[in-house]
Specification:
This protein starts with 7 loop residues before the first helix and ends in a 6-residue tail after the last helix. The radius of gyration is 24 Å and the shape is globular. With 503 residues, the chain is an all-alpha fold. The relative contact order is 0.13. GO terms for molecular function: alpha-1,6-mannosyltransferase activity; GPI mannosyltransferase activity. Its EC number is 2.4.1.-. Its main location: endoplasmic reticulum. Pathway: Glycolipid biosynthesis; glycosylphosphatidylinositol-anchor biosynthesis. It is a multi-pass membrane protein.
C-alpha cells in the first residue's frame, strides 16, 4: 500500500497554523479598514425578561479595565452577518420566525460553553462578548478535528497517506476558510459529517449514525447524509437476499438501515416540530402564519423562500451574474470531480455499485492507486458489527472494526494480498452526494453560497490532490488550485470581516 506513513501530526499542525493565519488576517483587515455596516454592535435586550435582564451588562461589580472593554468591543463588533443570529439564539433562544432557519447545534454548544468554561469572564467583558468568544473557540477547535477526520477518512478511501495529506492540506486552506473560523455552522457540520463518514467506513455504524445525526442538527443538508446509510443498506440487503438467499437476514438488514436513516433525519424533523409548536399551536386561525395551515407545515422551507428568496431558478436573474461568477470556481471544481470519477468507473456508477468496472477502463497511469478493486467482486461497505458474521462469507471476510493503523502504518495481510486501492463502490455515494449538493447550490440556493456549501465535501479535496500529484497533468492546474484557495482566503477575510458582501 502506497504511503504507509502516518501524517496525523502534520495535518493537525497545518490546521492550527491555518486558523492562526486566518485570525491574524481578520485582525489586520479590521484594523486597517472601517466596516461597511457598523450595526453589528447593536444588541437589543432579549424579548424574554428572564434571559434579557442581564444581556447588556458588562460588569457585575464595578467598571472593567479599559483594555477589557476594548476586547469586549472587538469581539462584539466581529459578530457579523449570520453570526448575529447564532449568538442571539444562544443568548435569547428562538424569538422570531426567521431565526428558525438556523439549526440549534451551534447555538446550544455556544450557550453551554459560555455558561461553563467561560462563565467567569462574563463580569469582565459581558455576556455577548463571552458568547462570541465561545463561538470562535468552538468552531476553530471543530475545524482542527474535522481536518483530522478528513485525513483518516481519506487514508481509508485513497489507501495512500501522501494523497490523504495533500487533500487535508487543501481542506485547511479551502476557499471558504473564513466561515470555518467565524461563528457559522461550517466547522460543526464538517466535523460531524466527515467524522460520521470516517466511522462508517471503519464499520462502526452506531457511532457513525450518531455523528451523522448531529450533522443534521447543525445544518439542514445534514439529512442528506442518511443517503450513505441507505446506500450501504441497499448493498448489504442485496447480498443477504441474492447471494446468501436468507430472507430473515435481509429483513433485519433493511430494518436496521431504515432505523439508522430515520435517526439521522430525526433531529431536523424534531426541530421543525418544535417550531410548529412555538409558532402555530395555541393561536387562532386568523393569527396563524400561512405555513401553519399547509398540509405539510415545513417552517424551514417557508422561511428560506419568504425571507431569503430561495427557490428553484429564483436566482437566475441578470443582476445575479456577478454572484454566479463568484461561485464558478467551486462549481467548476465540483463538475470536474464528478466527471473524473464517473469516467474512471462508468459501469460502477451506472449500476450504483452492483456491477464492477472492466479492468480495461481503468485510468492507467493515474496517481490514485486502483489496485484490484476495479475488477474485483469484493466490493462494498464494511460489515455492520461482529454479529454480521453469520450473514455469509462475503460479510464474514470483512473485519467490522479494523484498527486504524491497518490503514495508515501497517496494512493487514488481507489488504496486502489484495494490493489494496480505491474500491469504486465506496466512492459512489460520495459522488452522488456531491452531485445533489452542487445541483441544489446552482439551481435552488443563492449561488454564491456554493463556496461554503460544498466545502465539506471530501471528493473535492481528493480530486484536487490527484490533480496536483498526477504526472499526466500540467503543474499549472495545481498552481491554479492553490491560487484560487489563497485568493478566496484573502478576499474572504477582507470582505467578510468588514461586513462587505462575500459568499
Amino acid at each position: 500500500m502506497a504511503g504507509k506513513s502516518d501524517h496525523t501530526h502534520l495535518v493537525i499542525k497545518y490546521a492550527v497554523v491555518s486558523r492562526l493565519v486566518l485570525i491574524s488576517l481578520i485582525l489586520l483587515w479590521r484594523s486597517l479598514l472601517s466596516p461597511y455596516d457598523t450595526s453589528a454592535s447593536i444588541n437589543p435586550s432579549c424579548l424574554s425578561s428572564i434571559n434579557g435582564s442581564d444581556s447588556g451588562s458588562n460588569s457585575k461589580s464595578g467598571l472593567p479595565p479599559v483594555r477589557l472593554l476594548r476586547l469586549a468591543s472587538a469581539i462584539e463588533d466581529s459578530i457579523v452577518w449570520d453570526s448575529v443570529y447564532f449568538v442571539r439564539i444562544a443568548q435569547c433562544g428562538y424569538e422570531y420566525e426567521q431565526t428558525y432557519a438556523f439549526l440549534p447545534l451551534l447555538p446550544v454548544c455556544i450557550s453551554l460553553l459560555s455558561r461553563t468554561v467561560f462563565a467567569p469572564l462574563i463580569p469582565f467583558i459581558g455576556q455577548r462578548a463571552v458568547l462570541g468568544l465561545s463561538g470562535y473557540v468552538l468552531n476553530n477547535l471543530a475545524f482542527v478535528l474535522a481536518a483530522f477526520y478528513l485525513y483518516r477518512l481519506s487514508v481509508i478511501i485513497l489507501k495512500d497517506s501522501e494523497l490523504a495529506l495533500r487533500a487535508s492540506i487543501l481542506f485547511c486552506l479551502n476557499p471558504a476558510s473564513i466561515f470555518y473560523s467565524s461563528i457559522y455552522t461550517e466547522s460543526m457540520y464538517a466535523l460531524c459529517s466527515i467524522g460520521g463518514l470516517y466511522y462508517l467506513m471503519r464499520g462502526s455504524n452506531n457511532i457513525a449514525t450518531l455523528w451523522l445525526a448531529l450533522s443534521g442538527f447543525a445544518r439542514s443538508n445534514g439529512v442528506l447524509n442518511a443517503g450513505y446509510i441507505c446506500f450501504q443498506t441497499m448493498h448489504r440487503s442485496y447480498k443477504a437476499a441474492f447471494v446468501r438467499k436468507h430472507a430473515g437476514v435481509t429483513v433485519l438488514v433493511l430494518l436496521s438501515g431504515a432505523l439508522r436513516s430515520l435517526f439521522i433525519i430525526f433531529p431536523f424533523i424534531a426541530f421543525q416540530a418544535y417550531g410548529y409548536y412555538n409558532m402555530c399551536v395555541g393561536g387562532t386561525s386568523d393569527e396563524m402564519r400561512p405555513w401553519c395551515k399547509a398540509r405539510l407545515p415545513l417552517l424551514y422551507n417557508y422561511i428560506q423562500s419568504r425571507y431569503w428568496g430561495v427557490g428553484f431558478l429564483k436566482y437566475f436573474q441578470v443582476k445575479q451574474i456577478p454572484n454566479f461568477v463568484l461561485a464558478s470556481p467551486i462549481l467548476s471544481l465540483a463538475l470536474c470531480t464528478i466527471i473524473h470519477y464517473v469516467k474512471l468507473w462508468p459501469e460502477v456508477f451506472v449500476s450504483l455499485g452492483f456491477r464492477a468496472s472492466s479492468p480495461k477502463k481503468e485510468l492507467v497511469g493515474s496517481s490514485i492507486p486502483l489496485g484490484r478493486s476495479a475488477g474485483s467482486k469484493n466490493v462494498g461497505f464494511p460489515s455492520e458489527n461482529r454479529s454480521d458474521a453469520g450473514q455469509g462469507d462475503s460479510l464474514r471476510r470483512r473485519k467490522p472494526a479494523v484498527r486504524e493503523e491497518n490503514y495508515v502504518v501497517q496494512p493487514s495481510e488481507d489488504e496486502a494480498s489484495e494490493n489494496s486501492g480505491i474500491k469504486p463502490v465506496i466512492v459512489v455515494p460520495f459522488i452522488l452526494h456531491l452531485v445533489f449538493m452542487a445541483a441544489t447550490a446552482f439551481f435552488v440556493m443563492h449561488v454564491q453560497v456554493s463556496t461554503r456549501f460544498l466545502s465539506a465535501s471530501p471528493p473535492l479535496y481528493w480530486f484536487g490532490s490527484y490533480v496536483m500529484a498526477s504526472p499526466c497533468l500540467s503543474k499549472r492546474w495545481g498552481y491554479i488550485i492553490w491560487t484560487y484557495c489563497a485568493a478566496y482566503i484573502l478576499l474572504g477575510s477582507l470582505l467578510f470581516s468588514n461586513f462587505y458582501p462575500f459568499t
